[in-house]
Design a protein that fits this description.
heterodimer; A: mainly alpha; MetI-like fold; B: two-stranded antiparallel sheet; 13 helices
Chain lengths: 303, 277
Amino acid sequence: MKYLLIAPPLAFFFAISLIPLVYTVWLSLTSTNIAGGGGWVGFDNYARLLADTFFRQAYGNTVLFVVIGVAAQYVLGLALALAVHSLTRGQRLVRLAILLPLMIAPLIVGFIWQTLLDSRYGPVNGLLRAVGIDPVAWLTDSSFAFISILIVDAWQWTPFVFLVLYAGLRTLPTEPFEAARVDGASGWRTFADITFPMLIPASIAAILLRAIEAFKLFDIVFYITGGGPGGATGTVSLLGYFTALRSGNMGYGAAMTVVLLLTVIAIALTSLLILQRALSRPDLSGEQAFARRQSRTREVEHG
Amino acid sequence: MDRIRRLALLGVWGLFAIFPVYWMAITAFKEQRDIYQGPFVVPGVDFQPTLQSWEYIAGTGRDQILLGFGNSVLFAAVSSFLAVVIGAFAAYGLARYKYRFGPFTNSDLSFLIVSQRIMPPIVAVIALFAMFRFVGLLDTHFGMILVYTWFNLPLTVFILTDFMSRIPVEIEHAAAIDGYGKFDQIRKVMLPLAMPGMAAAYLLSFFFVWNDFLLALMLTFRDAQTLPIVITALSAQMEPRWWLISAIGLLAIIPPALAAIVLDRFMERQVLRGGIR
């Protein structure tokens, strides 16, 4: 009975995670192509990756999308969470408006934004033309295409960061804030000394979850730019797909995904270590800030 | 000052968040001409709304769109159900029993299952394509349900383990005294109590399957095509038919929204209403 309960998920784990994973690693050491040919090549694929400018660009893009994208989404999500939290009425409606993009499938998000940013018929350039600015090649100029993907990703996923941080804000105890008010602390001081430290666990959770998802970035790019122009917006997932299934070079494509997996594992493990440290330090869990406030309040009360 | 800045932020973000959805909604009522002469943003003033896209959906494009829509609903509904049921039993096991496989205990097992979520799906899916082709599961309904169940299990196990461990064990003891066997204890006592967690897990699973693109892109090509794959096929044609894809995009919001509305009631339900006193 006991083992029967966990047998199915473990069976799924072995059949659809572990065996494919082992098979992918094996593939990455061969020159297998989709038609069935190919043989053992050892680490040749990995050596080739190091020199492959397309792969290096895709890898760099993936990392940049994660770092810039998640950082921007965190700052925006935090600002929105604080703003909504401070509203005295209409919270429900504003929350709904903010969460709207989360409810649309990423592929359709890609479609909507492709039409919005279309250089000739899109409303974004229409607005620019109306105010007398030259239209921008949002999707066909490499730097603008990169920025466009960042904007679309932020449009869809900032609401997720908002949701986690807003939930975090709602569960904070009220005493420290009352103490700060008694102290006459400014809005900024209250934020820096109390709100932000107490939000650190929620912040780490939001950033970690977002980063893991951001490494998988595929659908939006696939639809909007297809990785172009000239690989400027390609990600490892996208390049791996095109290499393995469109060009039929399964061994080489598998090697790309193995590098991606190793990167994700390294980052996840580092973050978990940092997380454990952070949670065991009282000054980062907000307790110390709370204690500081309280002792200061006491001083005020007792003269 | 602070207040004004906050309201300005919310106003700007609100516009930024809503306009794309509004744009999709109005584009669904345009003709090709309105798109090429555009961008038009105010229906009735800039352009006259038409039902062209809806007529296409009900007519010429019906079979193809219905196939994608039906497959997406089927996969999302069935695989989420399987993931929640399998996940609930496993979560019960992890919450109540102590497992030991060599040096590995419960927390390692949970981590093993949940960690699959960290793995980018592209890593498994290239090999999965080859494996599915080998065993003849490529482009089959069964194969896709299998894959989506796998895709969601880490999530359901994660959510439900936490949920199950919060249900007091005394309730089960009471059920045992009443003569329930272990399986019945889980089925008739634990699962109903875990209903809010199961509803939430089902809803999230449904969303993930509904939104998936990569797995369907790799593993389906005709019979088991999902809605996103049909959409890419429709957009790949010569003239971009924005009106049509916008209309399908609007329709695509309905099933997850319905699921959310239906399941919302179950999530609200109190966990232990009158359980133990």
